[in-house]
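TA notes. Do not distribute before section.
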Amino acid sequence: MRSSCATPPVGRSGRRSRGAPSAGSATTANVEFPGASGHDERARAVRAGGALSHLSAARSYGWGVLRESVDVHLVVPTNSHRPLRAGVQRHWAPLSDDERHDGITDPVRTAVDCARSLPFHEGLAVVDSALRSGRVLRSDLEHAAAQTRSPGAAQARSVIRHADERAANAFESALRGHLVSAGITTFVPQLVVAETGLFAVVDLGDGDARVALEADGHGVHGTRRAFAADLRRHDDLQSAGWVTRRFAWEHVMFEPGWVVAQVRSALAQRPRRRRSRS
């Protein structure tokens, strides 16, 4: 099975090296890094003549990912056909000197590769986290995505356009990603609700429609006190006239159609408020 991996190399500054992008491809090679740490994976990638890439690179940078890749993703130079020892996704594409030395694709390139090759909600989770980490700038991502001609380039530009570093974690990003894919773009991550008698921060909120969404991951409450505070916030929002919806990890990951339908239903209950003209 072959797929393109043609995001051009970038330097440590985040700017792509000059030159026209070359088409690349990927196959499942026999390379495996069982139980290796991020540092060990990079060292082994260097010995294999390549660099960690895609989800493997994102994980190594400490960014939020929704799922662990079964394979290690490795970019190798387009002229490399050396046999590798055990099983990863091997992508043929140019590498910068920095990437060869560090054993990992540049942060900007990594984010763009994930944005164009993963499902939209998964790519959004990675790019939100990349921006949140401070390792990449939005302007650099936009520049790199505008120049790439790889398959998935249009999706990468859309992911970057909708990315938001305010998202607290990959789970919340995935919830927002499903909504954006369905054409619902009015929800703001970590929206602060400050009204008379009410102060709350919601995972996703539409302030005009007064709809709040919560991504309730397993163990998110931590303690009984946190659980009680969460329930009180939920009740306070409803008492103040907000419509709320709460979603578990399983809903977001495996029932996105139902999630979108629930959000549409919530929005339909609350006509959008008209903003007064200044």
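Switch to the second chain here.
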Amino acid sequence: MSKQGKVIGWCMFDVASSAYLMLTAIFAVVFAKVIVVNRDYGYSNFIWSLLIVAANLIAAIMGPPLGAWADSEHKHKLFLIISSGVCIITTAALYFVIPGQVALASILVIVSYLAYSLSENFISSFLSHVAGPRETGWVSGLGWGVGYVGGLAAIATFYMVTRFDFSAENLDAVQLLGPLAAAFFLVAAIPTFLLVPQFRDRPAARSSYAQLLRVFASIAKFPDLAKFLISFFLFQGALNIFAGFAAVYADQAVGLSGGWQAAWFISLQLSAGAGAVVFGKLQDRWGGLRIINLTLIIWLASTASLIAGGLSPQGWSDSKLWFIIATNAAGACMGATQASSRTVIVLFTPAGKEGELFGFWGLAGKLSAVFAIFLFGLAQLYFDLTIALILCAVMFAAGLILNQYIDEERGKRTAATHQI
């Protein structure tokens, strides 16, 4: 397979999974307005947060051993196909959920989100094998960028079917969201399954939990990697909150609906896609860590403006356009922050340990989601959505501060000269 074909195949998975990400953002709104009946938004949002927490906690437990198993048996591609298939099937099954069926909705959301999360671990482990050392930033950013193009297509499809009327009166259309997202995922992922080959670096011993504990202990030999994983835990927690609750905030606090809501979703995809590609290109010149720090500064400024707007006496009643501008500034950094993080992990990882280290990267991300989303759910339950945003600002700031103690060049040298 040509290098170009591998890159195309790898990037297409970001296109495929974008439909699921769009669905989860929208289904959070549907869950509160349609599925959970006779309850206030605070309660419904908290239940939704528990579902995402549960999925991430299970993924955090399963990710490292599955990654180690994939490394030892060279089964990254097989596990990618299986996890994608489970996500597609359970997403399509959301069609059968009707108002009041909270238990069924909860099971399907947890299983589909778990499978999606694991698939992200496996596809990330292929990055260093489809892109050269000087191209990882560009290819990673390209994946995120074209993923947002996929998100645009998914949004357009969802809007044509539902007109973004997420109410019980429009249930027949709302029920089609899951099958549409599943079909999109399946079709767009086919190039990945066909064009990206399984890689084989060298034979490895069968992995076990004991080996994983040894790997965890040996991370101390990689101080920059260890510090970055902690930083990633902090700022990724805030990103998880935005990804999981931005649509909820727009619907419940700002009052976006219908055409306004569709325009907001579209603008976010455009700004995020452009940001991922532009920052990805700059990353190969400036370094991944510098790009992450720049995006965290923008995240902080955007979050502060959202808090100020939500706490103002008039609220968002006359400031919908400002909300769209502020969230688009943050959206331009969404793909860039995550793509740069993925690249830094690649650069800090010894050859042949991609599966295990991406398992731990996934572990940090999943545990951060468990921590941050649970706290956010509690905060909005007892206060409101705007006050809960303060948690995001704190986590962005803490990650940015810790990054000042990481040396990217030293981290790459350590990965090249040390083994786990």
